[in-house]
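Help wanted!
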Amino acid sequence: MDAIGAKGVVRRLGGVDVLKGVDLAIEEGEIFGLVGPSGAGKSTLLRVLTGYLEPTEGTVDVLGIPPSTFKDEDRRRVGFMPQGFVLYGGLSVQQNLSFVAGLYGLRAGERRRRVREVLEFVELWEHRRKAARDVSGRMQRRLQLAAAVVHEPELLFVDEPTASLDPILRRRFWKEFEQLRKGGRTIFVTTQYLGEAEFCDRVGFLVDGRLVAVGTPQELRRRAFGGEVVQLALAGDPGHIGDSLKAVESVGHVIEIRQDERAEEPVSHVRLISQDADATLPLVMEALGEVEVRSVDLPTPSFDEVFFRLVKENQ
Amino acid sequence: MAIKEIRELVRQPQLLLLLLVGPILIMTTFGLSLDVENLLRPRALIVVEPKSEGARLFERFREEFTDRTQFVGTTDAPEAARERLLRGEVDAVIFVPEEPLGTVAGGRQAVLRVVYNTINPVFGTRVPSRSYSLVLDLNQSLVQAAIEEEIGNLRRAQGQIADLDRRLEQGSAAAEALSSEEALDATAGLDEALTNLENAARVWQSVGPGEDRNVSETLDRIATARQALEEVREAQEAGAEELEERSGLSDLRESLASLQEALGQLPAEVPARVLANPFALETENLASPPPVVGFYAPAVLAVLVQHIAVSLGSLSLIRERLSGAHEFFEVSPLGPGRHLAGKFLAYCGLVLGANVAVAAVLAGFLGVPVEGGFTLLIVAMLLLTVASLGLGFVISALARSELQAVQVSMLLLIASGFFAGFLFPLEQMTQPAAGVSYLLPASYGIRALQDVMIRGQGISASDLVPLLLVAVVSLAAARYLLGRKRH
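Answered by r_m:
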């Protein structure tokens, strides 16, 4: 059973269609990243999925139930980490977490145990007695994550957890999500950092209320470039090498041929697309003939480029 | 949710201290500083020409001036007095005319001019109203003095008539005696006595209560006696023979006898004070008014309860909505009902606890009465708290920003000052102000707390029912508005 299913979801806000027919299926136990620029409709889709907003059109099922009809026991199966710090600055770290655990119905003994476990998980146990307002912004963010998982939800919704964080902390958050996924949880994460798609099992690109692409990072790359990228460094000016390479059957196309004039000796960089790099490379080497191959690389294109290509393709 | 709210409040000791100490300090300062008696008596400076008739009149009736005002002193410099008035050193300057009695004798009213300088339409009326009372007092004192004089004349006339009557009795036996020098003096004296008597009767008639038949009859008899006396005096002047021939002497005796009888019926022993002030005022207050702090304390507490509850309520939900906490709660099993209930319980406890503590301190240290006991006081405060919290939650659910919520709370506070019976009596409210007062929990709260604390009564249905109604309607509305936002 899919953890989340959405069909033809439209959400109108203030007369404007913020979501324009979103179809989505997220499997249990995966990290799904919803990636898109600001204003794409990520938070609105997340709100529809959590049941905070009802879809104007279409249907949504979360854990097999429309979220707008969630009962208390259904809500206990879901965790939510909002974009900002929404807990209480006047309360201590521990009191905040204990309060949230109470909201989800954890009884006193279990609450104490889970609060400790989760605070240790996010490495805030030592700071438990400090008022939340007195801890750093990054600690507040981790406290917010702890609040989202204190009741051990099956499904976790996370809204832009890494927005305006430094790269080190962003990486740390993804490690924590990875750990949670290993614990069997399904995680739905929205982010505006395209590079973070790399950490997801599957990624959806949301642009202007439309889901333009969904797949694993590799699938999206392949779709964006039409295959795998192979990068060659050739000595000197290879002349009309492009035509020779294009003639190789498994080479989809040559992206670029560029001469590096700054190098001590003339070098030409060639990027080409192949459906299967392993099978293609021997054929490419053969086609190059006498040309000296300095290096062969299989680079991972940035998701910025992937996103850009897929959006352009959709337009 | 309730425990969380309490923990959050406990972690703000300054807030709790402010809630407790603030009202106590205000009431203590108020109680120590306000002297209502002096508040209603303007500081008055008297302008009077030294050694004038006006100055003598002022000295004679000094008490009338000093009782009605806070007497600052006298001066003969009108411009300097006016300057002091403009500088706010005095509230009124009273100009005493130089020749008041001379003016009255000339058939005109003597004018006591009072100048004041105020923009306050409420307390500003104390100067004209006190001045009016001062003029009334002065007039009464003058009339009383006149009556005292006329009563003296009346008594003297009575004695003279009795004396003459005896002489006339003798005179009828010896007519010569009546033409004697002594008898001529007696009839002249009687003429004067009748004039005085007539004057006294006329004053009596004008100041007496209603129409007095005795006085009218007396005046008729005086006229008859005067007529008879006229004949006797003419006879006296003509000589002893004429006296015997004339029947006027016996007519005069008859008239005088009848006059004495009429005078006997007049209440000549009535004191001039009573004649000048025939009506006295006797008032009975069924309630026992407390000192000024005691009177204002219930109203202050009621407005305080409402304001704290409305403020807490109005900020609570909007703050969560703006911070994103509301969305977090919406995704959690915490429904809008439990969400509100948690806040409601915590705030109820806080508002009630703080204000009962304030009331206890006011009762213990400032002697503010709690005649109905603390149990009833807590019930009244609880009702007001519940209704005010409901109103606060509605404001919070409708507000678009914290600033808006604060502004509406402040508007409610100001409206309570004007329309809830805090500054002006609720009974005096007419529409549309009365309509506003119906909507304010403080309107019922002030009355309920006054009933409990000052009158020692229970909470009347006319306060209990509206408070419950406001509470139920506003809490239901807040619950609906909070739930509606989910979709």
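OP: Thanks! One thing I noticed: Chain A has three domains: 1-77+153-215, 89-152, 227-314.
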